[in-house]
Each structure stands twice: as structure tokens, then as C-alpha cells.
């Protein structure tokens, strides 16, 4: 028996798949995770390094779509759900099966524990939509990347959901020059920052650098 809270999400996804909305009104990236306890890794915050949310929203100008009938102004958007292969298999199935028809072009799927099946099951069901798996912990890596021949998944290292988001944007950028430009700008800013840090370290010397930078972070 599927509880109402899950069934209503499944119904919403299936209805949305029938809507045939124009691409600029649907989420470009779908983010799913096995539990809301994965959110700090998948989104960033709570003492974790920046995650997929930060990469998409803060670095690349995406907005999160929370209402299918009321798309955000931003051209590039993403949606976020919790769905588990183990706990809510019907929801995972409906999510992956409807993703392409709902306008999603690439999925980022994160899960933790030793039996992190959500990313690879999502990849199999959503095929040929590309799925980027995020092992939430080190012990999840093997179960995320261990797919048999013919059943592909792309994956990042444990916890690296930020890079998963950049990879998702790279896939989208093949069709959207605007996004390509944003990716290039992001990379230039990254290089500028490394250059500035390197010059400061060299010119301030190690003790001076520690005083200037480490105190700033405290
Ligand atoms: P809870 O904190 O909810 O107990 O979850 C989640 O991704 C999470 O990291 C603990 C961990 O269980 C993982 N989980 C999976 C799947 N569903 C939940 N690996 C799945 O379907 O793969």
C-alpha cells in the first residue's frame, strides 16, 4: 500500500509528464537524494563544503523550481526531491521514468551508505537521460559506480556534488551558449583566485600568509 504522501508525488510527476510544457518552463536539472540527511552534502552548508545547490544557484545563475505551474524567471532551473530505491521504490521509478517527459535534461542522484542504489537504479530507468551519481560517503562509491556493461552511469568522487552540478551544466552547455559562457566565467574566476592566493603566499611568506588568511577564516 503506497501512502498518500508518496502517491500524491507520483501522481504529480505523472501528470506533469503529460503537460508537454515548453522547455524553458521546466527544470533542466533534476536533483534526487536518498534521504534529507544527504542534503548537507548534496546542497552544501551545515559544515560541509559547497554542493550542487551552490554550484547551480550561486555560481551559474540557476534558480530552483518549486512549482511546475509557476516557473522561476531564470532560464536555467533545477528541482530537488528525496526518493529512495529502498524506501520508496515506486516514487524512484516514477521520478526516473517521467524525467525526460517533464523536460529534465540531466539528473544528479546522490545516496549514502554501503548500499547506495538510488543513483544506479535511476540511471537504468531514466536511460538514455544522463545521470550523474554522487556517493554521499566513501563507503558508497563502489555501489554507485559499479554498473554492468551496457548500463552506464557517470559519477563523481564521494561528496563532490559541486562537481556533479558543473558536469550537469557542461552537458546542458552543449546546447546553450549562454551556459557555456557562464561556465567559462566561473573557471576564469577560479583561476584568478588561485593566482591571487599564490601571489600572496609568495609575497607575504608563509607566516604572513597564515596571519592574513587563517585569521580571516576564524
Ligand atoms: P537516513 O539518514 O534517512 O537514515 O538515510 C541515504 O542516501 C542516506 O545517506 C541514511 C542513508 O541511507 C541512504 N539511502 C540510500 C537509498 N535510500 C536511502 N542509499 C537508496 O535507495 O539507494
Automatic annotation (TrEMBL):
Catalyzes the conversion of N5-carboxyaminoimidazole ribonucleotide (N5-CAIR) to 4-carboxy-5-aminoimidazole ribonucleotide (CAIR). GO terms for molecular function: 5-(carboxyamino)imidazole ribonucleotide mutase activity. It catalyses: 5-carboxyamino-1-(5-phospho-D-ribosyl)imidazole + H(+) = 5-amino-1-(5-phospho-D-ribosyl)imidazole-4-carboxylate. Substrate binds at residues 35, 38, 87. One of its GO terms (biological process) is 'de novo' IMP biosynthetic process. Belongs to the AIR carboxylase family. Class I subfamily. The keyword Cytoplasm does not apply. Residues 27-194 form the PurE domain. Keywords: Isomerase, Purine biosynthesis. Coiled coil: none annotated. Gene3D superfamilies: 3.40.50.1970. Its EC number is 5.4.99.18. Pathway: Purine metabolism; IMP biosynthesis via de novo pathway; 5-amino-1-(5-phospho-D-ribosyl)imidazole-4-carboxylate from 5-amino-1-(5-phospho-D-ribosyl)imidazole (N5-CAIR route): step 2/2. The keyword tRNA-binding does not apply. This is N5-carboxyaminoimidazole ribonucleotide mutase. It comes from Haloarcula salina.
